[in-house]
Amino acid sequence: MLKDVTIGQFFPGNSFVHRLDPRMKLLLTLLYVVALFLVPDFWGFLVIGALMGLVVAFSGISLRVVFRGLKSLIFIIVFTAFFNILYGGGEPLFPGISWLGWLKAEGVRNALFMIIRIILLILGTSYLTYTTSPVMLTDAMERLFRPLKVLRIPVHELAMMMTIALRFIPTLIDETDKIINAQKARGADFETGNIVRRARALVPILIPLLISAFRRAEELADAMECRCYHGGEGRTRYKVYSFSWRDWVALALMLAALSLIILMVIF
Amino acid sequence: MAKIIEVSQLSFSYPEEDGNPSSPALHDVSLDIEEGEFLAILGHNGCGKSTLAKHFNGLLKAESGSVKVMNMDASEEQNLLEIRRNVGMVFQNPDNQLIATVVDEDVAFALENLGVPYPEMVQRVDEALELVGMTKYRHHAPHRLSGGQKQRVAIAGVLAMRPRCIVLDEPTAMLDPQGRREVMKTIRRLNREQGITVVLITHYMDEAVQADRVVVMGEGEIILDGTPREVFQNVGLLHSLSLDVPQTAELMFALRQEDIKVPIAVLSVEECLEVLEKMLGGAKK
C-alpha cells in the first residue's frame, strides 16, 4: 500500500524535461503555480492542460504513475469538492427534484474547478520531482535562494535537510512495511474497528519507526562527518549547471501561457 | 614501514544512561597500525571494537591516552578534517551512510565537502567507481541496489577522498553471502593493488583469516595480536571469548584433543586436506 506513494519520487531519465536546468525547472514550476491560481475560467485550464501535456509527452514518464500517486490524495480532493458543493450558491442544478436541492449549479461548478486545479497543481509539482533528482532540486533551491542568506536564513542547512529527508523516504517506507508485517505477525489488527481503534493501532507502528529513524539519523551524522562534512562553507558542487536552448524554449512556452492567462483575467 | 595510526594507552567510557553506571568501553588500549597493512579486529558484540574504530578518525575523543593519525593528534579539532580525509570509514548499514539519491552524486559528497574543483571531482568520482566496479550503476538510485552493491558505493564514497587508510566497521554484517564476497574481494584488491591500509572490524573468522594481522578484543582490551596463524592457535582462549575459530582450525583442535599430532593453525581447506592426507599415511592419489 505504501509503495503507491509516488509523490516526491525521482525517476532517472534523459528526456527533454530531465535535461532542463533544475533552477529553470524550479522557476517554471513557480510560474506554473502562479498561472494556475490566476486561471479565471475553464478555458484557462485548457492552456495549462496543454502545457502540462507537453511536459508529460517530453518527460517519458507516463501519467499512470502520477495517478497512482493521486490515489493517496483522493481524500483531500473529495473533501474539497464536498465543501465547495455544500457552500456553493446559485440556482439548484435540478430544479424539479426537491431532495437534490442542495446541489447548486454554482457549487458544482466550483467543485469541478477546484478539483481540476488541485489535480493540475499536483501534476505540475509531481513532474518537477519526478524529473529532477532531489539533490539537483535542493541544489537549485540553494542557488536560487542564496540571496536570502543576507537575512540570516540558513539556506544551505535547509537544503541539506531536504536532501536527506527525500533520500530517506523510500528507506523509511520499506521500514514501515516491515514493521507493519512484524506487528501483523504478532496479531495486530489494522483493518477492523472504528476510526479511533484504527488510529490507536498505528501507535505500535509509529514508535518503532521513530526510534529507528533516530538511530539512522545518528549513524548518518557519523557517516557524514567521516566524509568531511562541515557545513556549507567552502563547498564545491558536483553538478555544474548552465542554461541551454532547452531552458529558453521552456521558459518561452511558460511565459506565453502565463501571458495568455493574464489576458484572460483582464478581458 | 611508517605507522599510520598510533594508539597509546587509550581509555574511553560512554556516559551513563538511565542510572546504568558507565563501564569503560576501552581500557588501556595500545595499538600501532602500519601503513599498507591489512588488519582485522575481532571480537564479540560489545567488546569495544567499534568504539576503538571511532577513535581512528576522531569521531570519539580519547578520555585518556592518545590517538595519533599520521603524527596528528586526533583530539585536536583543527586536525580532524585532514585526518578524516586520510582515514575513511565505512559502516555496517549501507542505508544509513548514503546521502544522495543517485550513486555518483553520493560518491561526490566527500569531494564537495572538501572543496575539490569540478573537473577533478568528476575524474575522482569515475576513478572511485571504477575501483569498486560500480561504474555501470553510476546513475542508479541507491535504494534499488543490492546490499553488496550499496556497500561498494559507500566504499567508493570514501575512496574518492583518496584516503591512505580505510576503516570498515562490520561492512558485511548485513549482507547475504554473495554481497559479502563482493565486498571482501573489493577490500582485498584495494589493499593489494592500491596499497591502502585496511582496518576490518568483523566477527566472521573467514574474513579475519584473509588479513595480514589479527587483533582480538574482549571487554575493552586487546587480548591477542599477531598473524592469523599465530592468533588462531589459541583455540581455547578464543572459545572462552565466545568467538569461533575457522572450521579447519576447529577440526585440528579437536584432533589434538584426541592426542593426534597435527599443527593447529591450519587456515585453508587445501592446507587442511594436505595435513590430513599426511596424517593418514600420505595416501597419494
- Report the helical percentage of chain A: 55-70%
Largest interface: A-B, 31 and 42 residues
Could you say which structural class the secondary elements and strand pairing of chain A correspond to? mainly alpha
Q: Major beta sheet of chain A, specifics?
A: none
Q: DSSP strand (E) fraction of chain B?
A: 15-25%
Overall 3D form of chain A: flat
Strand arrangement in the largest pleated sheet of chain B = 6-7-8-3-9-10
Largest sheet of chain B: 6 strands, mixed
Using only C-alpha atoms, the radius of gyration of chain B works out to 20 Å
Features:
heterodimer; A: 267 residues; mainly alpha; 66% helix; flat; B: 285 residues; alpha/beta; Rossmann fold; 2 domains; six-stranded mixed beta sheet; four-stranded antiparallel beta sheet; 11 helices; 22% strand; globular
Descriptive account of the structure:
The complex is a heterodimer of chains A (267) and B (285). With 267 residues, chain A is an all-alpha fold. Chain A has helices at residues 22-38, 42-57, 63-70, 74-87, 105-131, 134-144, 155-185, 195-201, 203-226, 245-266. Helices cover 66% and strands 0% of the residues of chain A. The longest helix of chain A is centred in the middle third of the chain and has 31 residues, at 155-185. The radius of gyration of chain A is 23 Å and the shape is flat. Chain B is of the alpha/beta class. Chain B folds into two domains: 3-245, P-loop containing nucleotide triphosphate hydrolases (Rossmann fold, 3-Layer(aba) Sandwich); 246-285, no CATH class. The mean pLDDT of chain B is 87. The chains are: A mainly alpha (267), B alpha/beta (285).
